[in-house]
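Support request, please re-run this one:
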Amino acid sequence: MRISRAAFGIAIAAGVVAAAVMVRAEQRVRPMSPRGSSAAHVLGTWTTGGRQTFAAGRGTYENGKWIEIEYGRPLRRGRTIFGSGADYGASLLIGAPIWRAGADVTTRLRTEVPLTFGGKQVAAGEYSVFIDLKENNWTFVLSTWPAQQTYDPNNKDALWGSYNYTPDKDVVRTKMTLETLPHTQEQLSWEFVDVTNTGGHLAIAWERTQALVGFTF
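Re-run finished. Output below.
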């Protein structure tokens, strides 16, 4: 059966359109604030016996305990983030009494080992993380407030971000050390830094500010 040029052209055009639609459908829709996490694996022991591994040094890390922070990672996108004076931090709070130190779902810290912040020991478990923002004066807050995974205005037993936060569930409030970065950091980041067998620091960095809080095991 012979196909006319017109019919052939229509078929080709239809195929191109269909391919374009499939490509577009497969394109990933990026959230404004992607989820992120940072972890430390601590108090374990490196061994070189047993099965071969592809870790640096070809060893195996045994009996380690995990500490992890999970958070939303907003981007600067040309904005002035923290501001100054009476407006310091106002753009981050937007009606909330305290900063969620991330975006969307409440920032969460999970630890398999007891940690001590500012002289206060907290048991292994899961906590919400907030920062009380004052210019040149940040306070790190750990709280037992549960987190909503999707926003529900009728749920008064868990928080979305830091809206409706109250301090009655705080287990730690301690000052953070503030540093000015030599560069502008585009995306908010939490990291574990200077970790040893006795402790380390949890650091948050965004724009030109880094704030650290120390912890011990």
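DSSP finds two helices and twelve strands in the chain. Confidence is low (pLDDT under 50) at residues 16-23.
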